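User: Predict the complex with flavin-adenine dinucleotide.
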Amino acid sequence: MVADLVERDAQGFILTGRDLLVDGRWPKAWTADRDPFLFETSVPGVFAAGDARRGSSKRVAAAVGEGSATVSMIHQYLQTV
Ligand SMILES: Cc1cc2nc3c(=O)[nH]c(=O)nc-3n(C[C@H](O)[C@H](O)[C@H](O)COP(=O)(O)OP(=O)(O)OC[C@H]3O[C@@H](n4cnc5c(N)ncnc54)[C@H](O)[C@@H]3O)c2cc1C
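Assistant: Here is the predicted structure with flavin-adenine dinucleotide placed in the model:
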């Protein structure tokens, strides 16, 4: 199940982008031969934005902004597949 492959921190918040780096390495679940896009989770093509994401501001405006920015990242992702 995809949700089981999405890396989370100890509090359950979803790791995205460079937050996935541990000791300079991407997690095992990361199978793509590129770096993750901003807001992309450890599963290539799966993105997270808003309160569920580690490091998010936990504010409405921030969640809306992240969602909007994620659309742009998804367009970039779709150009890679
Ligand atoms: C009491 C309270 C007061 C707040 N006051 C303010 C404020 O004054 N100003 C401000 O800017 N922010 C405030 N916030 C924070 C703000 O509500 C959040 O930052 C914002 O709602 C985050 O949006 P989101 O879309 O990331 O998450 P959410 O709004 O939590 O949306 C997530 C949605 O996913 C749904 N969901 C969860 N699990 C699943 C699942 N497995 N399958 C399908 N759907 C699922 C949930 O039901 C929910 O509808 C407040 C939060 C709380 C709790």
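The pocket of flavin-adenine dinucleotide is lined by residues 50-51, 58-61, 63 (CB under 6 Å).
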